[in-house]
Structure formats: structure tokens, C-alpha cells
Amino acid sequence: PGLEAPLGPTAPAHFRWHPLHRLPSAPRRFRAAGAESRDDRSGGGGRAVMDWAPVGVLAQGNAWPSPEDVFRGVLKSYSSKDGYGFISCPALHQAFGRDIYIDQLRVPAKAQRGCVLEFSIRISNRGQPQVMHASLVGPGVPIPAGMAELGPHDLSDLGDPVDTLDLELLRVAKKTGPYGISVEKRGKKSKLGIDVDTTHTGGLMVDAVSGGLVEEWNQMNPHRQVKPGDCLMEVNGVVGDAGDMLQECRVSQRLNLVFSRGEKTVVDGVLPSVYVVSWNVLAGAAANRQNFPDVDFGVFNEGRRRAQTAAALAQVAADVFCLQGVDCPLEELGLGANSEYDCCTVQHSAGRFDRCVVAWRRAKLEMGPGGHRVLFFDDHPPPMAIAAECNPSYFNTGIAGLAVELRVRSDPGRRCFTVATTQLSWEPAKSDAYAWQMHKFLSVVFQFAGPRILLCGDLNSLPGAQPYQFLSQGCGLESVYRDSEGADVTCSRSNSGQGGFAAMTDYVWYAPKWFRVQKRIELLTVEDLQARRADEHTHISMDPFVPSLLSASWPSDHLLVGAFFELTNPEVMDEWGD
To answer: Which distant-in-sequence residues (6+ apart) come within 8 Å of 575 by Cβ?
Structure first.
């Protein structure tokens, strides 16, 4: 006590030892010289809680920073690749001539670049300050004066959000994937029953289905019908030469045929095509280090992500958007009253601030006479016979669904179809609850709109899970990506399980009796994703490692899914008149 000496070889000379008995026993917050203190955390009789660490108090030699002292600053930078970042604090910067180092293990789970942190420090063996403990400061706390330029807008190292957007993830495939059928001849008079064009490059183009085995197949398999405009690419393994494929059709008893869908089939009286796209844009509450430990903190910035989201939606220019995870004004996404789109929204319950949105292009589509329907799943628990074995709260998820009846303005018949969307929660152990919710949602939609529906959304259900099985087997619906769901990825994040998570969880389901898929948005495989993000995750030693889709070039952990639909069977649709 009373001895004055520098703390270390690199410590500034104006700092001195402080008598130990004068150090507080609880963390304290420094304030600027002359600043008013607040006693709001001590009940009026305890220590004062100051706004943030200033230069003045330290420079006057009042105290050398100890592990018990609490400072406030802005998370200036963080690199997930390097595993560390820096906090900007003016007082400590003047004292040490540097920002404060923070290791990845000390960064709060939900911190973002530009957020305000309260922290304590220790001095390293080299005399440099390092964060020992850090916590997020609650919302509404202003960034200390002089540090605003170091906050959320300091993202220049990530590049312009619109210029860096990965447009390759918005590509539309010219054709949907191949599909196969199997037929067997029952005698010499059995005929295949298709008229083909042998001059088409790459296969035999189907000009017409003229009865026979293929017509029988179509009647028994309405979800996978052979149609004019499709191309026969393979017969029992024979590919390429048209003559060889025709010969195989003549001589073989059993025929395994592989077709590819044509880009477009022109049918008199068919309604114009409608481009429908679904996307979980990722709510801001979920964009944090806890969920995405491999992502640069600057990527979490909400303004930057919204700018990229708006750019992606403008690039896609769909006729109908079904969006999930929307937690900002629609105008920030290029939708809303002053845009080309009309919209309906529903906000989830249970304290969530994100919404589901259905938006449609005003010049092409209008809301049908049925309007829209909203369903809060918690208001519709299953029958007691189903729920008796569990706590009723098991089925409470706070999720809502939205359905909107639409019609094409140019259609003289004024016929309608319905677009429905929802976002189920990711709880694999409760797949039975989500299967029930999907059953209830579709029953309401069917009563409201009939069978002409398109169901889009983040169903958080893997192919083969109960909600998926219900849709594919019990509803007469077909997935746009049915042929590629085992390999394609619509969602990936690095924190879920060993090596990360990547799978198909987003879908577009349609009634094949009423719609035909012309084209669809291309998706990625896990291998595609690893190749695209390899240079961004060199610090990850896990092998194999699945990186997050969320990155400097993409604003969400989900891809867009969608397709161009041709509305078919207009005569039959008249039976469901307005």
C-alpha cells in the first residue's frame, strides 16, 4: 500500500499501483470525469453503475483496471476463420493504444458485430489487455459517443451486399429431373401406346399418348404421367441411338423407361403459367454466433441481410412469394403497398416476432372472392383420444399458417387456386405433433379452397418423416423436388450435430391433377455446398464439415425453392366455380 510503480514493462507511466484495500469487492463500472452516476442497480445504497469506461478517471490515476472492473464497448470485429476479434473502448484504447482482444470462447453466443458488450479484462504476459468475461448489453443501450462509426455499418470488408449476392443460387432449371416408369407386355398385341419423333436430339420426343401400356400407366399413376412433350431417354439401359431404343421396345417383354419432362406443353385453354417461390429468409433473432459459429459476425447485420434479401427477391421476380421468418417492414424487402405486390401476413404467437407472408404480383394476379384464411395451430389441439397420452402443451408450438385464394386477371373463366404457407418448428421428437398440425392446416385449406392448392414453406421435416409421409401419401400432393430430395439441400447450418446439418426441409407441394411443373429452381447437394464455401471455412478441422449457407454472399441458412406451374384441366376446374 502506498507504493507507486508501473504495473508492467509496457504499461503507461501515468498508471500506478492502487492500495488493495481501496479496490471494490464487486464489479464496478467507470464513468467519464464529470458524468452523472446512476444508482439504479443498487437500490440507492450501493455502488453507482456508470455508463461506460472513460479516459478521464483512469488517466487521473484513480485505479489500474482489475479483473473486477467492468467496461463497456462495441464489438468492432470478429473473424470466425481466425477465432478472435476486438472490442473498441475509447478509455482502454487511450490507456493501451489498442483495441481489446477477445477470444472466440469469450464472445457471447448471440453477439453480432457492432453490438454493445460489458466486459472485464486481464493483462497478458506481454502486458496487453484481453477480455476475461463478456456479456451482451440489453436492447436500447446506445453505442458510446465516438464509437458509432465502429458499429453495424462498418462492414466494408464484406463487400457491397447486393454486389456480393450469389446469383448462382437463383438459377431456374430448364427441365425438371428425369422420371421412370415400368410396363410389361401381356401378349403379341400389346402396344406401348406413344407416338414419338425420332429426329429429336438426345432421345425420342413424345408427340402423343395413344392408348396402350402407357395410357394404362397414366391412369394408375396420376402423379407421374407420361405427357406430350416429354422425351424418352432410356429403354432398359439402352441410351443415345433412337433406332436401338426403338428396337429394344419391340423385342423386350418388360420395359423400364426413363423420361425427362418437356419445358412446356401447349394446351388450348390452359391458364398462363404462375411462378411460385418459397423462402425462409431467417429471422434476425436466429442469426447469431450460437447458431452459426462458422460465420463472420458482419454477416449477422440485419441491414445488410435485408438488402441482400430484397436483391434476391427482385432478381427472382416471382409471381407469388411465400416467405417465412420475416421480422421487418415489407417495404425493406421490396414488397408492400409501394411495390408491385399485394401481400397478406400472419405473425406467429408465443412471443415470436417473425411472420409468414404471401405476396403476389398485382398486375398478374388478384385475390379471389374467398379471400384468405389464418390458422393458429395452438387453437386446434388434436382430439382427446390422440392427446390423452401426453401433456396438452406438447402440441403448443406457437406456429401459424396462412392461405390465400388467387386468380389470374387475364383468365376469362375467373378460376381460382390457393397458395398456402407455414413454418413448422425444428423438433424432430415432435414430428407426430407437426403431422397433426399439417393435417389440420390442409383440412382447413381444402374446405376453404378445394383441391387446387400449392403448399409452400419451411416444414422442418426430412423426407420420410411423418409430416412428409402425410403429405405424399394421404393428400394427393406431390413435391416439386420429389426426384432429388435424397441428395438436394435447402437448409444448412454448422452447429447442429457432428459436422453440421444439411438436408431438404423446405418444400413446394402441388396437386398434380391441377398443376403441371414446367421449370424449377435448382438446388445444391452437400458436395456443391462444401465446394462453394471451402475458402470461407479453412479454420474448421472437422471432416467432413458442412458449412452454413448463411455467408457474406447469402443472407439466410435456407435456399429458395420454387417452380413455374402450368394450370391444367380448365374444364374440370369449372366444376369448382366461384
So the answer is: none
